[in-house]
Design a protein that fits this description.
2 domains, four-stranded antiparallel β-sheet, alpha+beta
Length: about 300
């Protein structure tokens, strides 16, 4: 049977659920969960999406993601494919890890957004030792929401959701935490996890419309790196690796350009080379201070 087309909208907020196949735990250790969150951070940066919350259980994961103009399928494919490669290599196994595609439900109103957020953060109450203190569970963003732990991965944008729970941060955190414990009703869980997808959700959020051109990106990178545009077409040049890597990151994350288009612009390089340079570009952004805000700088110049 053919798969149904996934409903998507560039300005939507998604409740994402990823489950492993029945005989395999998605996460076998804390190290596995840390790896998954590191990949969430990587692809959050690459596609400039927002993460409003998360909870990683042993055999499934919940993410609350604001697409912010990006293609959610590309974001989740990057995260889950990379994690499956890591998991299979580490645990010396082959074959599928995830149970079919990830499940995505579009949040269609403010009340549903609040309910889903609370539900995600209620998940640890099913774990022995965390029934009365889900905020202490290390792989949930609840502790970050209520100010009880630091966001070590720097991935959670909690302010937007908390804004629905109070006029001040302290009041919102108290109200939010008190309501988390009301989300363990089985009927509510069934409604949230298997509710039909809606068309789209719009709110007062500022959405990044990704109508940037190839020329915009090339002009920005060549100006920032102080190089000639012609040099980007040179196929083999170690001196231009940084510039090409960052160009590819911007083209993939903000322009949604296909690999064939990127290849033509950068001297007909291969798909494998594009993928390798893309990973290198992300590492540059995540590890080198002079490049850490390059995506935000580009958006400020051309949005």
């Amino acid at each position: 049977m053919a798969r149904t087309e996934r409903l998507k909208a560039p300005d939507a907020i998604f409740h994402i659920m990823c489950k492993s196949i029945s005989e395999v735990d998605l996460f076998r250790s804390s190290e596995d969960k840390e790896k998954y969150l590191s990949l969430v951070k990587k692809y959050k940066k690459l596609y400039n999406v927002k993460i409003y919350g998360y909870c990683l259980m042993d055999n499934h994961a919940h993410l609350l993601v604001d697409a912010n103009g990006a293609d959610i399928s590309k974001v989740m494919h990057g995260i889950n494919f990379s994690y499956a490669m890591y998991f299979n290599k580490k645990h010396e196994r082959e074959g599928h890890l995830f149970k079919d595609r990830f499940k995505s439900i579009i949040i269609d109103n403010d009340q549903y957004l609040k309910t889903v957020s609370l539900y995600i953060h209620n998940n640890p109450t099913d774990i022995c030792g965390f029934k009365d203190c889900p905020e202490k569970y290390a792989f949930s963003s609840l502790g970050i929401y209520i100010g009880k732990k630091r966001d070590h991965f720097n991935i959670v944008d909690y302010g937007f959701v908390l804004g629905f729970f109070g006029n001040s941060l302290n009041a919102a955190r108290k109200n939010y935490y008190s309501l988390v414990f009301g989300c363990n009703d089985e009927k509510l869980k069934e409604e949230i996890e298997f509710k039909d997808e809606k068309t789209e959700y719009r709110s007062g959020r500022n959405i990044l419309f990704r109508n940037f051109t190839l020329e915009d990106i090339i002009e920005f990178i060549t100006s920032k790196m102080n190089i000639s545009k012609i040099l980007l077409n040179i196929k083999y040049s170690r001196k231009l690796v940084h510039a090409k890597a960052l160009t590819i990151v911007l083209m993939r994350s903000l322009g949604n350009f296909k690999s064939s288009v990127i290849s033509g612009v950068l001297g007909n390089i291969t798909q494998a080379r594009i993928s390798k340079l893309s990973s290198f570009g992300i590492e540059l952004i995540l590890t080198e201070k002079k490049f850490e805000n390059i995506i935000e700088e580009f958006i400020k110049c051309y949005a």
